[in-house]
Amino acid sequence: MLDIRRLVKYYRVPGGEPVRAVDDVSLSVARGELVALYGPSGSGKTTLLKLIAAVMAPDSGEVIVAGRDIAHLTDREAARYRLREVGFVLQTFHMIAGLSAIDNASLKLVGTGLRVREAHQRMTPLLTRLGLDERAEHRIGTLSMGERQRVAIAKALSTDPGLLLADEPTGNLDTRRGYEVLALLRELCRERDTAVLLVTHDPQAAALADRVLALRDGRLVEYTPDAPPGLPTLQPQ
Amino acid sequence: MSLRNLVWFYRRRVRPRAVQELLALVGIAVGVALLFAVQVSNSSLSASIAQLTHGLVGNAQLQLVARGPEGFDERLLSQVEDIDGVRAAAPLLQVPVNLVGPHGARSATLLAADPRLARLGGDLLSGYAAGRLASLRAAVLPAPMAQALGVRFGESVALQVHGDTLRAPVGAIVGRRDVGVLADVPAVVMPLTYGQQIASMDGRVSRIVVLADPDRRAAVETALRRVAAGRIDVLDTASDARLFARAAMPNDQSTALFAAISAMVGFLFAFNAMLLMARERRRLIAELRMSGYGLGAVLEVVLFDALLLGIAASVVGLALGDVLSRFVFHPSPGYLGIAFPVGTARVVDLQTIVVALAAGTLAAVLASLAPLVAAFRAPAMDAVGEEAGGDADPPLRRGPLIAASAVCLAVTTAILLAAPSAATIGMVALVASMLLVLPVALTSALTLVERQRRRIASVVPAIAIGELLSARTRSVAIAAIAAIAVFGSTAIEGAHQDLQAGLDPNARELNAVADLWVTPAGASNTLATAPFAPADAIARLSLVPQVKDVHVYRGSFLDLGDRRVWVIAPPSESARPFPPSQIVDGDLRTAMARVRAGGWAVASEAVAKQERLRVGEAFTLRSPVPTRLRLAAITTNFGWSPGTLVLNADEYRRAWASDDASAVQVDLAAGVTATEGRQLVRAALGPTSGLSVQSAHLRELRDRATTRDGLARLTQIASLMLIAAALAMAAAMAGMVWQRRRRLADLKLAGIGHRQLWQALLLESVLLLGVGCGVGTVYGLYGEQLLNRALNAATGFPVDNSLGVAVALLSLAVVLAVACTVAMIPGYLAARVPVEAAFRD
């Protein structure tokens, strides 16, 4: 689903040497696969995610999503790509507080041209699957942090994208809730055959992935799990 | 907490929020500026007349004042000086003149005095040696007047006085250093003898001012009454200020009423601007609490923050208000300049500055308390995580809001019906009612649109309505700015137009009694109150074949108590001695017949009330020759707020013991147009005449222009309110939109295009401002009715009680168009936020 070939992205520093944020990275993620991209802060994880999201263009290399290179899309093409082909779950979820959970989750669907009622009908099974059926009509402000993150997952998956990008999606949740949310995300993506690239610096989250890739100083390196003692041991399925 | 720590906290908080802080500052500054400018304008004229009186008469406490323009015999001065306890006394002649120079004509007061005036301690002659002044046969001009006329020292200036045109050399041009505040007065100063000669008033003076021993003042006053013999008024020197205060009272009251509305609007603008920062403040408080700070420390931090912003914004507001008061609200004597030598100095007192500063700071402090209360009610973590989609507004309680709004509306209605003079309270109650009902109206409107939204296949309404519902306090605050702007503008401008519509027929009826009016020239002689000897003019006009008839009209000002009453004395043969539409009590035909016959007078409501007169009752008019009259009818005040009195010209001649006229009314032969007649009459009067010839229509237009000038402040206030509202809304909308850029970036990351986001922001503006403006229009129309009643009670002017729908719609359209246009720019910029911002914390 996602195929990255020799991707390079520099940041130009005024008066200094250019910084290689992403340095000759190649990776791929298959449909239904969850790949964790593990690395400390400043390792280039988020830059890589931005390149895949067509938020910025690479200096060289290719980003192939569903067989198409999205590295140099126009603004309009990029918006359409993000609306229909890719979903996002971020650490901080900036939702519209005045709308209900189902309204927030349906925003992308309505953006594709569906009436709100139809969008709601389409979203209801997904919200039920996420355990939000009784909270669907509640204002987002009345939901817990874990529930809000599940709404964010529903929104990301609402247009049935082939690829889901998650940037530290459990950063605002406690360990138990974080695990539950990630497990649910993995399960849903497997059911829907969605490829997931999970960016994290949490080894516990990385442990849930089918594969773990490590990024350091912009380059892919060998991953060595070093989960701190005392945390529950999670076995990848 | 130490000051150093407080400053550290402030800098830490402001640095990343500089733009929002700046917007709050702009909102407060606009409110303070409006309040300050109106206050300065309102107090300047009154302060100016008090300074002027002191500059003229110095430390004198008492004065003999002539009851008419012809003055009294100056030989009374020796009798006054002989009174035990009189330390010094000085004669003064005051005559209205029209000065003509190369740059044009200016109305002025001829002030003629002799060196004895200097002994009283005033500024007028303080710079002149007694001997030098006595020998001077020239005019002394204040520098601004000389500049306006275009005359310089050594040149001559033309004076139109008593119907003649004369020339006088300019002996000196004086500034503030020489004569103090008198330099700002439209005046020409002359030695007494020369002035009397110029004004054809040899041996006559207008007043004698007296400096008495402080402990013998009462005895001196009694002795002065004996000298006055009931034909001259004996008054204290503060009476000028009192007369002016009474004349200016309706203007002051209406301006004060509108200033109160402006202050309220300014305060609400400032408060709303602070509300825009409420979320940031809540987060700061929550963070402090999370860090273990107690209530006292949090209070210190929040209040320091608010005080700093309030003071900074107030200082900026004062500077802005200063500019406004100089170039927009500059003090203008307007119609009061007809009867008082008012200066145009701008007086800024400490109280005005303190009130404006306090209002701005109070708005900042009060607004900062709201998030403080909310932050302490909610668990700290909730406030910290609010950005993640928390709903900070409690559920709306419609019932109590509607009930409270209805109570306020009932208070306004009671004031409207029973006590219109308490209009300020009524307006405050009306605004309170409007603001209470606004959240209900906004939520109801959004609920209606929300229902429709579900049928639409567009993300635009979902985003717009969701955003409006998610920050209800802020949405209501912005809608409130729009509502207040439209309300204020509709009420004030509507009332202004109703007042003008009431005065217009009066101007027509007063002037339409003759084809042409021949009066002494000068803009300040709008009411035809300056005297002249009519014999020569009548003789010349009788030789013009196109002139069918001429009649002598008389009129002047007469001080009755604290009122400078406009006395109107039409010819006995006048078909309509007073404007028929202005009668309030009495039978019109009988009253007109009685005034024509003599022995009867018609008084305005305020004069009748002061003299405790009813129709048919007899009274003694305190004219130069006290005269017994009976009241034929009661009228409005024809637009002259201190009051009016109408008697026929023959009666006036006896009561004032003067043959002088104030105007000659000319009826033209059939077929002669006013323009032709005017040219013929001008030619007949000759080039040296100091008389001006005007058609009835021209006089009507001039009267209208004068009243418009007097009421111009109301339009200025209404316009400034709209400008201030547009600025406040621009700041508020920009602030609201700008704070949301991170959320907009998230929506863009979800694939929503910037065009859709921009459309959503515009829809938000239209919904928000549409509801605000709609509610403001309805309440504005009600406010107009209240102001009409209040203005009628305060001024006694005739008011046309119509419903200013056109004004309301115009205000609505202006605010909506300006605000939406203004909202488009920050909306466009915010919608173009880079998607990358979604990845920032």
Explain this structure.
The complex is a heterodimer of chains A (about 240) and B (about 850). Chain A is globular, with a radius of gyration of 18 Å. Chain A has a six-stranded mixed β-sheet. In chain A, strands 2-1-4-5 form a four-stranded antiparallel β-sheet, with helices on one face. The C terminus of chain A is likely disordered. Chain A has about 240 residues and is of the alpha/beta class. In chain A, about 35% of the residues lie in helices and about 25% in strands. Chain B has about 850 residues and is α+β, with helices and mostly antiparallel strands. Chain B has 26 helices and 21 strands. In chain B, strands 12, 13, 14, 15, 16, 17, 18, 19, 20 and 21 form a ten-stranded mixed β-sheet that branches. In chain B, strands 1, 3, 4, 5, 6, 7, 8, 10 and 11 form a nine-stranded mixed β-sheet that branches. In chain B, a hairpin with a 2-residue loop joins strand 3 and strand 4. In chain B, helix 2 runs antiparallel to helix 23, helix 10 packs across helix 12 and helix 23 packs parallel to helix 26. Chains A and B meet through helix 1, helix 2, helix 3, helix 4 and helix 5 of A and helix 16 and helix 24 of B.
